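Work Package 3 (structural annotation) set out to generate three-dimensional models for the target panel prioritized at the project kickoff. During this period the team completed the workflow that converts sequence records into discrete structure tokens, so that structures can be stored uniformly alongside our sequence database. As a representative example, we reproduce one entry of 192 residues exactly as it appears in the project archive.
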Amino acid sequence: MAVATGTKASEVCFVPLTLAEWLPELLDGFNRDQTVNGCWRKVDGCWRVEPIAFEEHWSLEDQRIRAEEIRGILDRGGAVWLARDAASKKLLGFGVVDARTFGSRGQYLQLVKLHVCKELRGRGIGRELFARCCQSARELGGEKLYISGSSAIETQAFYAAMGCVDALEISPKLFEKEPCDRHLEFILSGSL
């Protein structure tokens, strides 16, 4: 996949991450920054955009904590996809699927993380990572992908474009952890 980065096009490689290749500094320098100016909130049973503004930034400590979380998911047999610049090997994005099932029939696998670096959002990297995470979730036996996604307007627009809808079953554990997230699902037999 060719992606314009600055003045020249660069090739993006999508590769699965194995436990043997995992490093504590996996996410060091990854630019997750996001400026949020509006969020979806459920009010009186209906979703609407509220003027909620904040900045998100991962410190080096945040990056290391998330890298450890990824190692734990790999330990449990989960799947991790990396998007890297082919020439420099710089991390451009990543997607993470946990192998633990949940839901009334064990139908859900969680898309734990899906991030694209700030400077390359909107160029198809997230779509490709999502597709690869869906394929991995199918291979792990999932029926649906569960997403506890940020309620930021841009994040929700991405998931809507992927075909995600409000989850039929809400995970109490994930809702308690992130009550302002929008809990979504994607039927894995569907197409992107």
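Helices lie at 60-75, 125-139, 153-162, 172-177.
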